[in-house]
Amino acid sequence: MAKLVSSTYGEALFELVVEENTIDSVAEEVKAVSASFLENDELSKLLNHPKLSKEEKISIVENIFKGRVSDTMTGFLVLLVEKGRENEMEGIFDYFLNKVKEYKNIGVAHVTSAVELSAKQKEDVLAKLLETTKYAEFEMHYSVDASLIGGLVIRIGDRIVDSSIRTRLEGMAKCMQKVQLT
Fold first, then answer.
1. CA angle, residues 57, 59, 63, in degrees to nearest 5
2. Which among 142, 148, 158, 172 could disulfide-bond with 164, CB atoms 3.0 to 4.6 Å apart, if both were Cys?
3. Share of the chain above pLDDT 70, in %
C-alpha cells in the first residue's frame, strides 16, 4: 500500500513539474524539505501527532515553508496533509527524485570492491558504465567489502554484475561438489 501511495503522489508531483518546466528547482526543494524533516525530528512528530487537526498541521506547514519554497512545493505539502499522507512524505519524495533521475537519464550505481579504489580506477569504472549503458550520467556510490577478495560487484537498479573472486570461488566449489570420483 505504501508503495502505491508513494508512486501515486510522486508521479503527480513529477507530472506537474514537467508541465510547469520546473523540474530542477522543485527537485532541489524536495531535497531541502526532505533534509529539514530528517534534521528536525520534532517537525515530523508534530505533523504526525494524532491530536492536531488537519487545519493546525496545514498552518504549521504554511508557516514553515511558505515563502521559503515555491508555491508548487508548499501546495504539495499542504495537499499531503489534507489527504492524511504526511507520514508518507519520505517515500513520496524518494519516488519523485528517482523519477527525476530517470527523466534526466541519470543512473545510480553502487560499486563494491575488496579494497578502496583509486581516483583513476573510479574514473575507469564510470567510463565503462557510461559506455555500456543507456545512461548519460551516473550517481556513483562506492563501498568496500574485503570478503570479495578481489574484483567488483556493481548494482544499477535491479541489475547486478558480480565479478568478485569470492563469487568465482563459490561457483568453482559448487562445480567441484558435483564431480564424482570413481
1. 120
2. 148
3. 98
Instruction: Flag residues of the chain having pLDDT under 50.
Output: none
Phi, psi angle pair for 144, to nearest 5°: -120, 135
What's residue 1's pLDDT? 56
Query: What's the per-residue H, E or C state across the chain?
Result: CHHHHHHHHHHHHHHHHHHHCCHHHHHHHHHHHHHHHHHCHHHHHHHCCCCCCHHHHHHHHHHHHECCECHHHHHHHHHHHHCCCHHHHHHHHHHHHHHHHHHCCEEEEEEEECCCCCHHHHHHHHHHHHHHCCCCEEEEEEEECHHHCCCEEEEECCEEEECCHHHHHHHHHHHHHHCCCC
* pTM (global) more than 0.85: no
